[in-house]
Design goal:
17 strands; about 35% strand; 2 domains; 2,3-Dihydroxybiphenyl 1,2-Dioxygenase, domain 1; 4 helices; nine-stranded mixed β-sheet; alpha+beta; about 20% helix; eight-stranded mixed β-sheet
Length: about 260
């Protein structure tokens, strides 16, 4: 049994320098969240701040080079101890910055951080003329050959049960209510490659929500039965689903409709 207790999750959009400002403005307008002052050695980090005193769970990082991507912060009591646990399960340490957090990659190559600062109050869905929406899920996109190992790693590290989800290619991690996002694990058709991730938004009215995103500068890439794939100004793909956005204390159990 893992000794790691994850008390919060923060998802970071890692954005290319040339599209950092427009992408940050896009995600702020899309969520209705204010932008924090920048921080970091090169002012490369910012948080998206929900209204009403809720704690932030979305952040942005300006990259020095390379395409846009996502990484995940797991908030734990002791990042050093948690990193030892992760390494024992197959992760690899990439960096130990002086700030006290640890940067690792999963067995499949997905970058994540173990951080110590606590959070605790999740945001409610945002209300728009077309209904409510919220960023409520990070989906790990896992090539087929590494799917079993990667899903086992995340379940073992977090001590969260793996459960079936809608569609044979999906599993999810069942964790305690009150966390701001849940984790979905998708098996890709491609046989090999690095694990990556994308964000999912839940919406009362998917068509209205997608139209709102298009008006803000988003671009539709594909329309599926249960979700629509879009790209932000940096070209980072994400999905809008038909899952009903609900209070953070119980939305973790909802399935797409």
């Amino acid at each position: 049994m893992s000794r790691v207790r994850v008390g919060w999750l923060t998802v970071y959009l890692d954005l290319p320098a040339e599209s950092f400002a427009p992408s940050l403005a896009y995600w702020s307008a899309l969520t209705g969240y204010a932008v924090s002052p920048t921080r970091g050695r090169h002012d490369e980090y910012a948080s998206l701040l929900p209204p009403g005193g809720a704690d932030d769970h979305l952040g942005v990082q300006r990259l020095g080079s390379g395409p846009g991507r996502l990484h995940l912060d797991l908030h734990v009591a002791d990042p050093t101890t948690a990193a030892e646990e992760a390494v024992g399960l197959g992760a690899r340490v990439l960096a130990r910055p002086a700030d006290g957090y640890v940067v690792l990659e999963s067995p499949g190559g997905f970058v994540f951080c173990l951080v110590s600062h606590p959070q605790g109050r999740a945001a409610a869905p945002a209300a728009w003329p077309g209904g409510r929406s919220m960023v409520d899920q990070v989906c790990l996109d896992i090539p087929a050959d590494g799917y079993e190992r990667e899903t086992a790693f995340w379940s073992a590290l977090t001590a969260w049960e793996l459960t079936a989800s809608a569609g044979a290619e999906f599993r999810r991690l069942r964790h305690q209510p009150g966390l701001p996002v849940r984790i979905l694990l998708q098996r890709l058709a491609e046989p090999t490659g690095r694990v990556r991730a994308h964000l999912d938004l839940a919406a009362d009215d998917r068509a209205a929500e997608v139209a709102r995103h298009e008006a803000l500068g988003g671009r539709v890439l594909a329309r599926r039965q249960w979700w629509t794939v879009l790209a932000d100004p940096a070209g980072t793909a994400y999905c809008v689903t038909g899952r009903t956005p609900t209070d953070p204390t119980d939305h973790l159990t909802k399935e797409p409709r």
